[in-house]
């Protein structure tokens, strides 16, 4: 089955690259993408609505204008719709965010999730990069508060919070970005406060306790957390 799926993906991508059997064109400035309604419309309510007959001009002309979108993001989106993935070679963190923004526009939640995963993996290895503060701002600019954008927002908040000291020390514009995006700063404060509270609770549940081993009758003192079993350091018996 995997080999059959690979074959189907290759065939689909070949049709996208060649434009064979195309019945729809996406125009983005000087680039034309020859695509297929049967691939796009079942996966994207945006395209399904756009080509509906007698509803919009696109349904009559078979041409969808997307001049305000990024052409490279459109190419990645189409790769995903045809194969379930997109090529990440030479892509930056900002590129993944542009694809995410487009996925939100065309209402393809699976592509949004994939963008989140790819951005997260790249950002975790590149948070020291000069572009990271700008990416954090972009992530907040393209997502609304609430469930729709909370996954992407939580990614940048978690990465920034885990490395906050180094980010302040690095001259990457992080401090200015926090001043410009107050909502992001507030979310980081909340994340750090919760993390500190969890750490305090873990430490407070740990205490020095004295035991008399019921197996070898030796006494010992050990620091443990409440509710944890302990083993005698002499005989190894559980107490």
UniProtKB/TrEMBL annotation:
It comes from the Eukaryota. SMART domains: BTB (SM00225). It holds the Pfam family BTB. PROSITE patterns: BTB (PS50097). Residues 22-90 form the BTB domain. InterPro entries: BTB/POZ_dom, SKP1/BTB/POZ_sf. This is BTB domain-containing protein. It comes from Venturia inaequalis. The lineage of its organism: Eukaryota, Fungi, Dikarya, Ascomycota, Pezizomycotina.
